[in-house]
Design a protein that fits this description.
The complex is a heterodimer of chains A (110) and B (113).
Chain A: E1 2-5, E2 9-13, E3 18-26, E4 29-37, E5 44-49, E6 53-57, E7 60-65, E8 70-75, E9 84-92, E10 98-100, E11 104-109
Parallel strand pairs in A: 2-11
Antiparallel strand pairs in A: 1-3, 3-8, 4-5, 4-9, 6-7, 7-8, 9-10, 9-11
Chain B: E1 5-7, E2 10-13, E3 19-24, E4 31-38, E5 42-50, E6 53-57, E7 64-68, E8 74-78, E9 87-94, E10 102-104, E11 108-112
Parallel strand pairs in B: 2-11
Antiparallel strand pairs in B: 1-3, 3-8, 4-5, 4-9, 5-6, 7-8, 9-10, 9-11
The chains are: A mainly beta (110), B mainly beta (113).
């Protein structure tokens, strides 16, 4: 199984950068996902990393280090609409099951 | 292309009752997974169905059960409801390639009084 840790809350100012860290322990790794979830809504896919390195997609980037069991999601040029919960999820190699962290609530202030 | 549809959106039940939730996946998606989401606990995996068979199961008591029909629609049932079952229940389907993102429905918010 997996043990996934991420901070509970983060606050940042509009236009700033925020980095959300995620550490995991797994018996078999087969990819790491980041999802965004606004209050009362379904999670939506942000990024997928299976190899080490940085994946950039517009204002959002995700990094993975498999040897360290570590990932981060970088949000640049923060906008008010980025206020949401960000979920880190790891897929297991043996059964393809996704395990989620508890989520990081990001609050963007004006 | 319609997304993942969950019904009902909101549900209020009392302890001891049972409840059935429904999920219709994106057309062509055969894998359906169910998650329970509570504040501070994150998304907890309940079970996954593929081609009408349960493929994976999380660590939930037997009061939680599910099934999948031939058209890939899935239902989950919770019997003998407890206060702690109050949560957002999310259904997700997997993209065709299997290594892609999950598509989530908007969920069913269950309140047990």
């Amino acid at each position: 199984g997996q043990n996934i840790d991420q901070p509970t809350e983060m606050t940042a100012t509009e236009g700033a950068i925020v980095q959300i860290n995620c550490t995991y322990q797994t018996s078999g790794f087969n990819g790491l996902f980041w999802y965004q979830q606004h209050a009362g809504e379904a999670p939506t896919f942000l990024s997928y990393n299976v190899l080490d390195g940085l994946e950039e997609k517009g204002r959002f980037s995700s990094f993975l280090s498999r040897s360290k069991g570590y990932s981060y999601l970088l949000l640049k040029e923060l906008q008010m609409k980025d206020s949401a919960s960000y979920l880190c999820a790891v897929r297991d190699l043996s059964d393809y099951k996704l395990s989620f962290g508890a989520g990081t609530t990001v609050t963007v202030r004006a | 292309k319609a997304g993942v549809t969950q019904t009902p959106r909101y549900l209020i039940k009392t302890r001891g009752q049972q409840v059935t939730l429904s999920c219709s996946p994106i057309s062509g998606h055969r894998s359906v997974s169910w998650y329970q989401q509570t504040p501070g606990q994150g998304l907890q995996f309940l079970f996954e169905y593929f081609s009408e068979t349960q493929r994976n199961k999380g660590n939930f008591p037997g009061r939680f059960s599910g099934r999948q029909f031939s058209n890939s629609r899935s239902e989950m049932n919770v019997s003998t409801l407890e206060l702690g079952d109050s949560a957002l229940y999310l259904c997700s389907t997997l993209g065709r390639k299997g290594n892609e993102k999950l598509f989530f429905g908007s969920g069913t918010q269950l309140s047990v009084l």
